[in-house]
Specification:
Helix content is about 25%, strand content about 30%. The chain contains 2 helices and 7 strands; from the N terminus they run αββαβββββ. A 3-stranded mixed β-sheet has the order 3-7-4, with helices on one face. The model has no long low-confidence stretch (mean pLDDT about 90).
Length: about 130
């Protein structure tokens, strides 16, 4: 009887160890794109496709090309701070200063000055 108990205990320990090991090894490893993934055509010119980039790097890439970056937060299974998509490209008369800030666990983007020589605004959805 004691031998059967020890055998069951060993099998149970092995199964729990295997599940814990798989759980740890199969956790998603997040990584961000380093640069834009091509361009998106718009009425205001080619907009860098910043999908998959970290939001602060995406904002810098857009601003470098003359586009005013704006953000909208969105629940997602992606890493917090990931630019999920370019949601809208619009005229600067419709730009909203308060949407140029975004914060997420582990980072943030401070606002850009809405008055400037911007081609258009670009609204990016960001995972939080």
């Amino acid at each position: 009887m004691a031998f059967l108990f020890l055998k069951c205990l060993a099998v149970s320990f092995a199964m729990v160890s295997a599940f814990v090991t798989l759980f740890v090894l199969l956790q998603p490893r997040y990584s961000y794109l380093e640069s834009p993934n091509g361009c998106i055509s718009s009425a205001y010119g080619d907009v860098p496709n910043v999908t998959g980039m970290r939001a602060d790097n995406a904002a810098l890439a857009l601003a470098s090309e003359g586009y005013y970056p704006e953000f909208s937060t969105c629940a997602s299974f992606d890493a917090p701070g990931t630019a999920l998509c370019v949601a809208e490209v619009g005229d600067m008369t419709e730009a909203e200063q308060e949407r140029s800030n975004v914060a997420w666990k582990g980072g943030s983007v401070s606002g850009y000055n809405v008055s400037g020589d911007w081609r258009a605004f670009v609204l990016i959805e960001v995972a939080v």
